[in-house]
User: Fold these one by one.
Assistant:
Number 1:
Amino acid sequence: MSKFAFSLLATDPKSMARAGLWETPHGTIETPAFMPVGTAGTVKGLTPDQLAATGAKKILANTYHLALRPGPEVVADLGGLHRFFDWSGPILTDSGGFQIFSLAKLSRMTEEGVTFRSHLDGSALNLTPEKAMSIQEFLGADVIMCLDECPPADAPEEHILRAVDRTTRWAARCREAHQRSDQALFGIVQGGTIESLRIRSAEALLPFDFPGYAVGGLSVGEPPPEMYRTLEFTTPVLPVQKPRYLMGVGRPIDLIEGVLRGIDLFDCVMPTRNGRNGMAFTSTGPVRLKNARHLRDTSPLDAECPCQACQRFSRGYLRHLFMCGEMLGPILLTLHNLTFYQRLMKGLREAILEGRGIEFRASQLARWGESG
């Protein structure tokens, strides 16, 4: 039996939403699920116990950043990622493909692979499909990603076509190079927002029979409605009985809209990054704690939230921490935002199991004032 069995428990009658169970060597994930981002082997500001207290079951780490420091061999010598930062649940590693987009000024790409000039010290990091597999095997994550080319949203169609076909060729090389049976290798669908290219990419990857498929190259500058439209014609091409992962997304409303279009897994830096900068997601919409209106506010950040930030402290105190530059402020808001995201996904999953996914979206938008 596969170490990565995926089973569907329910589908929403009015949308493409699914609720499922995904078995991995380090635990079973209830889907749909959101993965906090621990780029360098840590979700900034939180201990593993605090992270688990948010409800998180699976996290993401990054191949490019861990390859630069401390290096994949060092991580392997220290017991692999799970032992390295003491996380007992599943871990996914990105391949470094997104950095081809985000660090375009520091990289040079050829058919063989990509060479990065380190953002740390300028040293060269050569990343080929084979090298991406080797690094991720050293790191030891449960789920690893093929190296792909992620073009910007405003790229010309011919550029996106080249990226689609290169992503397919690189996926073949990744499939050939990958050795570890305790890791699930996901293929990544590219194609911008162009229907014919998304279908071309997905159909080219299907013969490799990956254990799961990711939708990459979204949330890179296109308007949200274009992202949603793209999912509507992409997810139906992907296998029903395998998990679907939308990479790097996103806002709370994006999670809901993605799930309603058949997505099972998400990751994004938004809850942690926004938390470190004083912005909280709450049951009634976003709260910007640095605003002066919270100076004497004795109310909790979110009366419905069970996290420490909401149960023990006032908005006025949380604002004070940020205005004083105290590290506790970003820690507490990170804790809160991740708890909010996990509670949102739990509520969405329950709604799907009860056949009311569309109603869940309407209810949330009404509470958030459509600003989710």
Number 2:
Amino acid sequence: MKSFNYHRPADLADAAKWLAAHPEARLLAGGQSLLPAMKLQLAAPSDLIDLGALAALKGIRVDGSQVVIGAMTPHAEVAASAEVRRAIPALAALADGIGDRQVRNRGTLGGSLANNDPAACYPAAVLGLGAVVRTDRREIAADDFFLGMYETALAPDEIITAVAFPVPRRATYLKFRQPASRFALVGVFVSDGPQGVRVAVTGAGPCVFRASALEAALGKQFSADALRGITVDPAELNSDMHASADYRAHLIPVLTGRAVTAALAA
């Protein structure tokens, strides 16, 4: 690991100022992805700007028909939140299935989204619920936020402050996990809410994406039977030592059907 300068800003303005002043700096949220990358010399920031002291970026609140979660809120807090369990139980269950206890207690919502790992769980929830990502300068719709592998719509000096999740009528997240890392080989978040039926898939491609054919079928009939005969093209899906693209393509409608059945039974 190369040497770096460490900053611990007292407020968001200071964090934004230091980030703008140091083009090679990186924000430190939970550090569960960034620090391992630094140890492997896959990342070598000149400065780390630790957001841990910014209380304004933490917390959960229900605001009308949406749940607003601060960017620095740990996964474990989301999983344990009575408000989240009551309003969007699928989101609480998703958070409770991320990594292990250390990751859930250190990793944060904003850090996960900014990193945009192809197999991360939170991007599926954000895209599957049609959430809005709030930053220190604007609001970004989920459909516009995720651009590609480890790529988002964030500017280099932009900071995620919170995410607003619309409360759906019903939703479920299921993932077929890689047993060692607990990342998703394929994860599917299905919701039926204010924006209609949405099906977001993580782990299968270079970036989280919506399965439009499955959404169209479920929009007509929200049941597993509506997915019979629908297949997913494996051409642009991931293929690696853990699973082939064909296998991932097979899992997507299977997991979606199971998620729909679970949502109807909840």
Number 3:
Amino acid sequence: MDAELLKGLNAARRNRQAAVLVTDLATGEGRLVMKGDVAPSDPVLAEAVAKAFVTGKSGVVEAGESRLFLNVHLPAPRMVIIGAVHISQALAPMAAMTGFDVRLIDPRTAFATEERFAGIDLRAEWPEEALADRPIDAYTALVAVTHDPKIDDWPLVSALKAGAFYVGALGSRKTHARRVERLTEAGLSAEQIGRIAAPIGLDIGAQSPQEIAVAILAQAVAALRKPADAAGA
């Protein structure tokens, strides 16, 4: 691989940025396409690259007279769960099994215990402290379920500003209306706030904490794998 391409790819990995290495199989020439770049001029290649950024699957594409290999490099998806509640006890292990890198945060040490969350990256700290070493980014799903604005609001603001692919918050419509007022006062736009999934989770008629966890996880996966559909929801 060309040294400059390798340098760019390594930088993308360090910065948790999505990239597709496009290589002409006839000439060996390559180029790096970053997510958010201007789409390739060839419509077939542009569509293939856009699909690759969603699916994460590498493969060969025929574009005009060229046969190209698309090598996709996506950051591993993360899930940050704010709140060591019953829903989280079901959601955290399910999300981990699905392939998410899970971190669970709750400063309330009575809830955030190893006994309740064995095997989970658990931080009994305030979100500002717990996320200092790994800030929320575009490949993070943020799930806020404490019902406590003092705990939930900071990570919600951070997730919306960072463009996290999924942002969900537990609470009734009245609770969310008050949340909207607070986030507006914090300087977020109506468009940003409108990205919050509230009520949280797909509408499957969930009742138990386990069912709510299933609904949340399904909604987060849909936002990751079918972003266009999620945006139009």
Number 4:
Amino acid sequence: MPSRTPSSSLFGDPAPPSRVATQGTWINAHCDGGARGNPGPAGYGALIQDDSGMVVAELSEFLGLKTNNFAEYSGLLGCLAYALEHGHARLRVVSDSELMVKQIQGKYQVKSPDLKPLYEEAKRRIAKLDGFEISHALRHKNKDADRLANEAMDRGMKRPHAAGQPAPAPLKATPYPSKAETPVEPRSFARPAASAPVPVSKADTMLRGFTRDGVVHVLGGTPLPDGIFVKIIRE
């Protein structure tokens, strides 16, 4: 099975075509990118087939410490570079990154300053093709690209990946929620059984309590004298 680890940079023109472009036929690419952490060790993978379904290339590249969305865009750029370098004028891309697909389709705005240069480079390469389509698929329909992306991350992390064994799953690219959208896990505090107030004269005395609206509340009703320093330890 043909394979290739792209050497082209993310930016700049890909290498000149290695053969005459076939104007009427399409190639089809499934691409995926991920990072183990955000940012973290990242990589992308892509499986490229001709219009009859024959595999013509596998792309797999470690990207260093990057974000999930950076890796997803790198997968798309790798597919575009392959098409341009090998003279394929028509390219269909399938990705399980809904964010990237809808940004390329013009349905979502690109607000991230880190993604905007990748988006603009992708659009520049797309404009050089005679035909381009991109669509979203669920992750279970993108298994080959996911495998290649994980192999890239394993190589970068010097982690052996046994054949037939499931690779560690990367974190998938999702839009970053605002602070208002970030759920806060509720916490409950059990009040201890009634007991005599604990003296606070010693520096090493530990009291239990919680903070609310920036105010320290001590459990058990023990008053805090003025002028002391309080060390808060998260439980």
